[in-house]
Design a protein that fits this description.
The chain is an alpha+beta fold. 28% of the residues lie in helices and 29% in strands. The protein folds into two domains: 2-102, Rossmann fold; 119-209, Beta Barrel (OB fold (Dihydrolipoamide Acetyltransferase, E2P)), CATH 2.40.50. The protein has helices at residues 2-8, 22-31, 49-55, 72-77, 90-102, 109-114, 161-165, 209-215; strands spanning 37-41, 61-66, 82-85, 119-124, 127-132, 136-142, 145-150, 154-157, 173-177, 180-183, 189-191, 194-197, 200-203. Strand 9 (173-177) and strand 10 form a beta hairpin.
Length: 219
């Protein structure tokens, strides 16, 4: 198998297990959640790779393998590390591995600060749009969705607060309530344990107050 040869030819990788059945693979992964990188074929009998990935409660960094480009949007939704088309070229395979293993390496706060993203891609109405992080004022939880409030408009995105919180730069954004994440640069004033921005008072939850007040620069 080409993929197995590529893995065995890469010193930074150790081939732990292979499966030709998605059902067998799922059963094994549910019992072994310590895997760092999962190479997952989309087109499998019984259960597709995408269905398998959606089922996993703990998802490793995943590189999808497929014959079709049509799965790109679903790959984005599942936040996979990379997406390889068959036949898998070794050069492209190596690039995917390098990009993926970088995410597994611990980084110092100084390095993280210099590499903070300035944009975020989100799926809105079957389209993937780019948002400038500096234009985001606050994010509000609404059931199974979040509402991203920017300087000019609102975007409703199907995701969780925890998932989006992990994607935001920690030096710029802060969760101040179970239902709110704010851009610290957009605060206009603070009053009665609430922040005011975009003509709206946003409460600072009791369990979040200590962290919030320690983060703001005040006299």
């Amino acid at each position: 198998m080409i993929l197995e040869r590529h893995i065995k030819s890469t010193p930074s990788l150790e081939l732990v297990q292979t499966f030709s059945s998605s059902v067998d693979g799922l059963a094994w992964l549910l019992k072994n959640d310590h895997i760092d990188v999962l190479f997952l074929d989309v087109e499998m009998p019984e259960m597709t790779g995408l269905e398998l990935l959606r089922t996993l409660p703990h998802k490793p960094e995943t590189i999808l393998i497929t014959s079709h480009k049509d799965f790109a949007l679903q790959a984005f939704e599942l936040q996979v590390a990379d997406y390889l088309l068959k036949p898998v070229d070794f050069t492209r395979f190596t690039q995917a591995v390098l990009n993926t293993t970088k995410k597994l390496q611990p980084q110092t706060s100084a390095v993280q600060a210099t590499n903070q993203p300035d944009e975020l891609f989100v799926k809105v109405d079957n389209k993937i749009i780019k948002l400038n992080l500096n234009n985001i004022c606050f994010i509000e939880a609404r059931g199974d969705y979040v509402v991203i409030n920017t300087d000019t408009k609102k975007h409703i995105v199907y995701t969780t607060m925890s998932a989006i919180d992990q994607k935001l730069p920690v030096d710029q954004f802060l969760r101040i309530h179970r239902s709110f994440i704010i851009n610290l640069k957009k605060i206009e004033l603070i009053e009665d344990d609430s922040v005011f921005m975009q003509e709206k008072y946003i409460p600072i939850g009791g369990s979040y107050q200590s962290k919030f007040y320690s983060r703001i620069n005040k006299l």
